[in-house]
Design brief:
15 strands; 4 helices; 242 residues; 2,3-Dihydroxybiphenyl 1,2-Dioxygenase, domain 1; seven-stranded mixed beta sheet; alpha+beta
Length: 242
């Protein structure tokens, strides 16, 4: 599953634009109170609106073998998030991945992840171009197992790594994952940045085409390649949190 578009609420659009554009060096367009950020093959959209509590989580895939370079590139740009005296984290064996986490705007927990199962190695010094896509987005749901089971049955999306737990499930594949969590859980590696229950809209390629409610009104829209080309070309309708 490839995450092509993610729409999230924001408190201060200008601050988000400055972070993603100036700090991370990504292509950014500020349209009134809406920020559009291009992260490789993913478009992030932040819409300024009603304040929400809690923190977002997003993970950016980097080329295989470049995590150390990505960590060095981050230093001086954004504080790394540590736990237990370490700031690099090996994922469960079933994920075959390693991550560093860093501080994002509005308390968000952001992540660089080297997914070693992907054939995406790249030469050269690390830059913003090495943020290849958003490959994880966190979504708060009241019943993790029930939502994961419904996505498997209706959308054809499987649990990734391990079977869903009561408060956590990764759904999708090595290219893109919905991280389903219960409200009130803290995002790793922190103990105090709690999952936001804010509205989240995700558009992706993969699974069975359709729109699926995650936790009303948060939703997932799955599209096939032809449908995506139409929506991104002539007359595509803008997704909105409204």
């Amino acid at each position: 599953m490839h995450l092509t578009r993610i729409v999230l609420p924001a408190h201060a659009a200008a601050d988000l634009a400055a972070f993603y554009g100036e700090t991370l060096g990504l292509p950014v367009r500020l349209d009134g109170q809406t920020v559009h950020v291009r992260v490789g093959t993913t478009e992030l959209v932040f819409e300024e609106g009603s304040p929400s509590t809690g923190a977002h989580h997003l993970a950016f895939t980097v080329p295989t073998g470049k995590l150390a370079a990505g960590k060095a590139w981050l230093q001086g740009r954004a504080p790394l998030l540590a736990s237990g005296g370490k700031d690099e984290f090996e994922a469960p064996a079933t994920w075959n991945a390693r991550s560093v986490y860093f501080d994002g705007p509005e308390g968000s927990v952001l992540e660089l992840i080297d997914r070693r199962g992907l054939d995406n190695a790249a030469a050269g010094a690390f830059s913003s171009a090495d943020l290849l896509c958003v490959s994880e987005v966190g979504v708060a749901v009241p019943d993790v197992r029930a939502v994961a089971a419904r996505l498997r049955a209706e959308a054809g999306l499987e649990a990734y790594g391990d079977e869903p737990e009561e408060s956590f499930a990764a759904v999708g594949d090595v290219h893109g994952l919905l991280i389903l969590v219960t409200p009130g859980r803290a995002w790793v590696p922190t103990k105090n940045r709690l999952v936001t229950a804010a509205v989240t809209f995700v558009e992706a390629q993969g699974g069975r085409s359709g729109t699926y409610t995650l936790a009303s009104p948060s939703s997932l829209r799955l599209r096939d390649q032809d449908d995506l080309l139409i929506s991104q070309g002539h007359g595509g309708r803008r997704a909105s949190l409204a």
